Amino acid sequence: METKFRESIVNAVHNPNLTGALGRFSEAYRTSRLKAYEGYDFETLRTQIAERKSYAASHLDELADVFTKNAEARGTKVFRTNDPAKVREYILNLARENGVKSVVKSKSMASEEIHLNKHLEMAGIDVGETDLGEWIIQLAGQTPSHMVMPAIHMTKEEVATVFNEQVEEGQKPDIPKLVKFARGKLRTKFLDAQMGITGANIAVAETGTLVIVTNEGNARLVTTLPKIHVAIVGLEKLMEKFDDVVPVLTALPKSATAQLMTSYVSMISGPVPNTDGTLKQLHVILMDNRRTEMSQDPKFKQAMQCIRCASCPNVCPVFRLVGGHVFGKVYTGGIGTILTAWFDALKASDDIQSLCIQCGNCVEVCPGKIDIPGLILELRRRLAVEQGQPFAQKAIFSVVNNRKLFHSMLRAAYVMQKPLQKGNFIRHLPFFLSDMTEFRSLPAIAEAPLRDTIKEIKQPASKNNKDKNKDKNKEKIAFFAGCLIDFAYPEMGESLVKIMNRAGIEVIFPEGQTCCGAPARYSGAYEVAAQNANDNINALLADDVTYVVSACPTCTVALKHDFISTFESLGQTDSLPRARQLADKVIDFSSLVKKLVDAGRLKFKEGQELGKITYHDSCHLKRTLHASQEPRQLLTQAGYEIAEMYEADMCCGMGGSYSLKLPEISAPILERKLVNIKKSGAPLAVMDCPGCVMQIRGGLDKQNSTIKVEHTAQRLADELA
Ligand code: SF4
Question: Rounded to whole angstroms, what are the CA distances from 206 to 27, 73, 238?
Fold first, then answer.
């Protein structure tokens, strides 16, 4: 990671204007977006969008031809090119031929993508942005920090300063007055311009129509007042039928700005007359710039389903801290990282892909149904193939890949940690490791790992049970512990065994299990992840068990989903049948316990009033495994009162090795979580993920808080009837 990039993160995180504005917006956005979608079936709506956009992506050539034919039949000139330089050349030639001295632009990411303004200005043409946010950042000499709200990072004071310095002195930091001032100045620009440049939100092939939405009405003036209108349209904006416009226009304002509808929707199906009776020139540039290639990529084709609503950054815990400028590119946020890798270069996404913490918030809200974190992992894989893995990473994974060596090292760490250990914590690490304990304490390695202690537990039909034959028909499940439960928190695993035993289930611990491969996969080291997957599949399918259960949602997701997609990405199809066989057996802890309780196989002590607790949703459990109610229902049935914390389902900043790689971001995300836990008033925070326990318990310990943190298994095990 480049030092400059890391510095830009630190600067952003310590910029109170930026974090304040983005934080407030993101909090308000979540609530207002839900309100805007009230009465709509979001899942159905986004399925419609995804299907129609996916169809368009599969028929790009054909739709571009149909669009061209229909648009040209109405007098539009259509130019199609893969090359951004040709787009600029076309517009410059057109401007020169028509003596254009002044251009007004409505917000267009496609024009940003090809750095059009700079090229026009170098040719002596005055270019004026007319979207208020875009105009502000143009005057300030900046780039947009957000796809929909380009100047969200600026305060009214900063805007007033920009107006005073760049336009006219005497402007006060008063929003209505600043807007009025801008409107007056922009009107003159509209009237003076000879050419208007826009993008388009949709290009309808069957009618050759451009659909443009704005809230300020500026696109309407840009497309009607100057005598020449040029629309730069990325090929992903093509849709087959007019009917396809409806779901996109329904979702776009709700997802973008939580509005029921956008103020202005313009539909342009051909040149219209000017006020002097002549006919306007309408030019549509269908810009490819690797979009066709993207649509043919089996993994990245889905990125063509993006409607550029920017709800993904709006809900991203990282984006709301660092904003868009850290990305240093035209497109920002998770989807921006993917678009940068394609429209700029894979290498250009090298640093920025590391910002993704893989929480999955964006997947939940994306109206294009795009698996943004999954695509970012694929970028990491391709980057690792193209550039090779960093030396330190390679060394770490070569140890992780050797199960026996890895486990011996963890056992050795138990002895070596002694001078640093205080109770169950390591509060300070020396030298270059000190960052790791700066904002949270780390758990000490347990004296004996779960793989040892579990052998001491007398279980139904286990080898410690003398009356073995009597119980030989008892149900068996395999437990996948994951590194944290095995070596740092064996008590969580012991609680799980106690619960299963109470339901008459024997828990076996396949010794051959190793790291779930998530750290390797999340770093792009898919070959390592595949070897971890194969080792685990062999270990976990060796016995005939009803379920394979894990009390770590990240591990559960690895076993249930990631092994399959890792093999698919690597083309290791031979491994897929056994990966699927394993996936069918895998279940997360709370979902399994809920099943057992519902089936009457487990009961809690009756009539208990155990007081308040608060529950933190682990990202993978809620958003990939869709189990957010199960733990709450179980804890309530056990006798706890759940005091919901604010943003219970927002990431705690752990993200596996993310908290080690980017402590600058992990720390403030954790801080926010700790504030919300404290505000809940509960003396105990419960969660289903040992990784979240490590992060949150460590953070609270660092702050000398008395709030306790436990895994759901520990709380339930104590309350069984
Ligand atoms: S990826 Fe999805 S959420 Fe993000 S801008 Fe595109 S459509 Fe919107």
Answer: 40, 12, 10
What pLDDT was estimated at residue 471?
52
pTM higher than 0.90, yes or no?
A: yes
Inter-axis angle of helices 156-166 and 175-192, nearest 10: 40
| Ligand 1 atom with least separation from CA of 255 | 8
Angle between helices 245-257 and 42-58 in degrees, nearest 10: 120
DSSP-derived secondary structure letter, 425: E
Measure 93 CA to ligand 1 centroid, in angstroms. 34
Which atom number of ligand 1 is nearest to the Cα of residue 313?
4
**Nearest atom of ligand 1 to the alpha carbon of 256:** 8
Q: Are 444 and 473 in contact (CB under 8 A)?
A: no
Q: What is the mean pLDDT of the chain?
A: 93
In this structure, the residue with its CA closest to atom 8 of ligand 1 is 309
Model confidence pLDDT, tens digit, residues 361-379: 999 999 999 999 999 999 9
Cα distance between the two ends of the chain = 53
User: Distance, CA 557 to ligand 1 centroid (Å)?
Assistant: 23
- Rounded mean pLDDT, 504-526: 93
d(CA 137, CA 127): 13
| Backbone phi and psi for residue 80, each to the nearest 5 degrees, phi listed first | -120, 130
Q: Is the CB of 368 under 6 A from ligand 1?
A: yes
Distance 76 CA to ligand 1 centre (A): 30
Shortest-distance atom of ligand 1 to CA 311: 3
Count of Cβ atoms closer than 10 Å to residue 465 Cβ: 16
Instruction: Determine the Cα–Cα distance for residues 220 and 209; give it in Å rounded to an integer.
Output: 15
Structure tokens at 478: 């395999």
Q: How far apart are CA 475 and CA 507, in angstroms?
A: 9
* Ligand 1 center to 608 CA (angstroms): 46
d(CA 563, CA 518): 9
**Which ligand 1 atom minimizes the distance to the CA of 308?**
5
**pLDDT tens per residue, range 311-345:** 999 999 999 999 999 998 889 999 999 999 999 99
306: Cβ contacts below 8 Å, ≥ 6 apart: 53, 236, 335, 339, 368, 370
Q: Which DSSP string corresponds to 592-613?
A: HHHHHHHTTS--BPTT---EEE
Location of structure tokens 């066709």? 292
Taking alpha carbons only, the member of 414, 434, 422 closest to residue 488 is 414
- Per-residue pLDDT, 236: 98
Which residue's CA is minimally distant from atom 4 of ligand 1?
312
- What would the pLDDT profile of 201-245 be if each residue is shown by its tens digit? 999 999 999 999 999 999 999 999 999 999 999 999 999 999 999
